[in-house]
TrEMBL record:
InterPro entries: Cbr1-like_FAD-bd_dom, FAD-bd_FR_type, FNR_nucleotide-bd, MRET, OxRdtase_FAD/NAD-bd, Riboflavin_synthase-like_b-brl. CDD domains: FNR_like_1. It comes from the Bacteria. Residues 1-101 form the FAD-binding FR-type domain. Gene3D superfamilies: Nucleotide-binding domain of ferredoxin-NADP reductase (FNR) module, Translation factors. This is FAD-binding oxidoreductase. GO terms for molecular function: oxidoreductase activity.
Length: 224
């Protein structure tokens, strides 16, 4: 199915990431963590579909996406960052493998944090605390961290930031590896969620296996 949605508002989240709020179609539903195929409703772009995650909650009266733009090439995300209220987009039905399967460790790289935004917001709305949950979030620089203040304000959530390309940053701890994971993950207790670039997902799966996390407790996404 294809549904046309209208942009209500847009605002910057970081220097290259925007929060886009759309009117919500009547009866539309999804599970926190799911995404949809999104396309610009413009000539020449309607077939250029990309998977983007809902960052609003199912009970909200709007649809929200938090989308990172890549302005160095004239692609879909660059043009999404230029959208204005009243513009329209096309979406399909919800899909995706990432969903809340219990407390644990959420491992994200860059824009891969977006499925965890709705999951953590939904957990917090239901229980009032995120005690027992850890967000491990890797970015290139400090200013790339999406919704840092919101995550740090979530009661009970343990946030572990790391940056890879900013040597002077107090967060510069290199890439996430098995040694780091061994200090954050309790095998057999924690569900481990991974979302990010494909090479990172593969490396994190190997790292988690190395510290004893069963494959059944690892949740990843594949939009191939």
């Amino acid at each position: 199915m294809t549904i046309r949605i209208t942009l209500k508002s847009t605002e910057p989240v970081t220097h290259d990431t925007h929060r886009l709020t759309f009117e919500k179609p009547e009866g539309f539903d999804f599970t926190p963590g799911q995404a949809t195929d999104f396309a610009l409703d413009r000539d020449g772009w309607r077939d250029e579909r990309r998977p983007f995650t809902f960052t609003s909650l199912p009970g909200d009266d709007h649809l929200e996406f938090t989308i990172k733009s890549y302005p160095d090439h004239d692609g879909v995300t660059k043009r999404i960052g230029q959208m204005a209220p009243g513009d329209t987009a096309l979406i399909g039905g919800p899909r995706g493998a990432i969903e809340d399967r219990g407390d644990g460790v959420f491992i994200a790289g860059g824009a891969g944090v977006t499925p965890f935004i709705a999951i953590l917001r939904n957990k917090l709305a239901g229980t009032g605390t995120l005690q027992g949950n850890t967000l491990v979030f890797s970015n290139r620089t400090d200013r790339d961290i999406i919704l840092r203040q919101e995550f740090e304000a979530m009661p009970g959530l343990n946030c572990y930031w790391t940056v890879t390309d900013q040597p002077g940053s107090p967060l510069a701890r290199g890439r996430i590896d098995a040694e780091l994971l061994s200090t954050l993950v309790v095998p057999g207790r924690d569900t481990c969620y991974i979302c990010g670039p494909d090479p990172m997902i593969g490396a994190m799966q190997k790292g988690l296996a190395a510290v004893g996390v069963p494959r059944a407790r690892i949740v990843t996404e594949d939009f191939g």
